[in-house]
């Protein structure tokens, strides 16, 4: 297995976030020596956000009540 294949497998993982209240904040955090915000979204109840881990996005922070769907299952945030 090539190193590129391993990297591609780790990247590209999708997460679906379903807001269960108005004002759910989603914050994308950037890779690097210092953790930095690079993207924010605000969802209202019932809105769905589909996001992907990439070379730039290493973490996603969620503020508010939402369901987070991953390949490992569903997580209740907030």
What does this protein look like?
By secondary structure, this protein is mostly beta strands. Helix content is 10%, strand content 55%. The strands form two sheets. Strands 4-1-6-7 form a four-stranded antiparallel sheet, with no helix packed on it. A hairpin with a 2-residue loop joins β6 and β7 (73-77). The longest helix is centred in the first third of the chain and has 8 residues, at 3-10. The chain is globular. The termini are far apart.
- Basic shape: globular
Helicity, in percent? 10-25%
Instruction: Please summarize the sheet with the most strands.
Output: 4 strands, antiparallel
Instruction: State the end-to-end CA separation.
Output: 39 Å
What class would the helix/strand composition place it in? mainly beta
Low-pLDDT ranges: none
User: How much strand?
Assistant: over 45%
SSE ordering:
HEEEEEEE
Query: What is the CA-based Rg, rounded?
Result: 14 Å
Oligomer: single chain
The tally of beta strands, per DSSP, is 7
Strand adjacency order, main sheet: 4-1-6-7
Number of helices: 1
| Overall average residue pLDDT | 85
